[in-house]
Specification:
Elements: E1 14-18, E2 23-27, E3 31-36, E4 44-46, E5 57-62, E6 68-73, E7 80-86, E8 89-96, E9 109-119, E10 121-128, H1 131-134, E11 138-143, E12 146-151, E13 158-163, E14 168-170, E15 173-180, E16 185-192, H2 204-224, H3 235-238, H4 247-260, E17 261-262, E18 265-266, E19 285-286, H5 287-299, H6 303-314, E20 326-327, E21 333-334, H7 340-360
Antiparallel strand pairs: 1-2, 2-3, 3-4, 3-5, 5-10, 6-7, 7-8, 8-9, 9-16, 10-15, 11-12, 12-13, 13-16, 14-15, 17-18, 19-20, 20-21
Helix pairs in contact: 5-6, 5-7, 6-7
């Protein structure tokens, strides 16, 4: 089912929001043009970034001529702020997804908070979901000022659109047009509905009063530290995010080594009984992470240890010196083979070792 044509935006014009279960791409024009909902492995609900005529989108459009926009994240969070600047005024769109906190049956939602900083601005909201990669049709129901979208042939997928402004249904899509003055705020929320016969228990007040501050706190707790050690942190000194001799980094590297390291082999993470990654079973050790660890050691000044680990790690290659993605419990190669990322990490570690060894000789 086709919708209004959406001109393709440069890929760099998008920011990302998410809830650890899925993500959405939000453009500088205020349009969500891609999202698999409610999970990463779900079919797309919005995909106009791929098909401008029928992919689906969720747009918040300030009606101002010749506006400029920019995006930023609230510090320490994945809450995205899109600001619109024009002679007529300044508008702000805040997008976020409340974290599900690993609850299997919790509701996925996108909260869009619209406010005017200066001037009086009219907005148009258009929500055009297209289920199952735009292959499925859907029905739209208006009930008590809320819109329900139900897929006809996509496993009964169902979503609800609620707002504290008036919503309308137009050709099966959601629509709203409203005007805000300085300091006035409107909210519009899209949420998943698990079953057609279950009445959603989260009203607009729940989102407007509670989820914004809760989501800020949840993200900041998540950024400050997690109970699970993840070897992806090894990229921090490799990408110059932190100095390799910074005491906080040294303690982080020691924690990674203590928790994830077996000889010179590293797990990406240890999957606990909580199954925080949503997968059953355990992964093998990641060769990529082992070479990251070696490079981080070299950068931190532990050159002899890094050199020894490098030589020992080379011994895990196959008879032709090639590495797979992972190693199993018996040292067998698992996953992608040969894996380019692993060999790039090996080369990077070798170059760093060579540089550091030249300094100490």
């Amino acid at each position: 089912m086709e919708h209004e044509y959406r001109p393709y935006q440069p890929i760099e014009n998008y920011g990302v929001i998410g809830d650890l279960q899925t993500v959405a791409l939000v453009g500088l024009d205020g349009s969500i043009d891609f999202m698999s909902f409610p999970r990463f492995d779900s079919p797309t609900l919005f995909a106009s970034i791929l098909d401008a005529r029928k992919g689906g989108y969720f747009a918040v459009e300030p009606q101002m001529e010749n506006y400029k926009s920019k995006q930023l994240y609230l510090p320490g969070t994945a809450i995205l702020v899109t600001r619109f600047f024009a002679e007529a005024g300044i508008a702000e769109l805040i997008d976020y997804m409340p974290l599900k906190k690993y609850k299997e049956n919790s509701t996925s939602a996108i909260v869009r908070k619209i406010q005017v900083i200066r001037g009086t601005i009219t907005f148009k909201v258009k929500c055009a979901p297209r289920f199952d990669y735009a292959r499925a049709t859907h029905q739209t129901q208006v009930k008590d000022g809320e819109l329900y979208f139900a897929s006809i042939n996509d496993g009964n997928a169902r979503i609800r659109l609620i707002a504290d402004i008036e919503l309308q249904e137009r050709d099966g899509d959601g629509y709203a047009e409203f005007t805000l003055g300085e300091s006035e705020i409107a909210h519009i929320i899209l949420e998943s509905v698990e079953a057609a016969d279950k009445t959603p228990d989260r009203n607009i007040e729940h989102y407007t009063r509670h989820t914004y501050r809760e989501t800020i706190n949840d993200w900041r707790k998540w950024y400050k530290g997690a109970k699970v050690v993840d070897a992806s942190c090894l990229l921090m000194p490799l990408t110059h995010f932190i100095a390799p001799t910074e005491p906080r980094w040294i303690s982080t590297m020691e924690a990674i080594g203590k928790t994830l390291k077996l000889d010179v082999l590293l797990y990406r993470y240890k999957n606990s009984t909580a199954r925080f990654d949503g997968l059953d079973g355990e992964e093998g050790t990641f060769n990529l992470c082992s070479f990251w660890y070696i490079e981080a050691l070299a950068k931190s000044g532990k050159v002899e240890e890094a050199a020894e680990n490098f030589e020992r790690m080379i011994g895990y290659a196959n008879h032709l010196g090639l590495f797979s993605e992972e190693l199993g419990k018996k040292g067998e190669h698992l996953g992608n083979f040969p894996q380019a990322f692993t060999h790039l990490a090996m080369i990077s570690a070798a170059l760093e070792l060579n540089k550091q060894l030249a300094r100490v000789r």
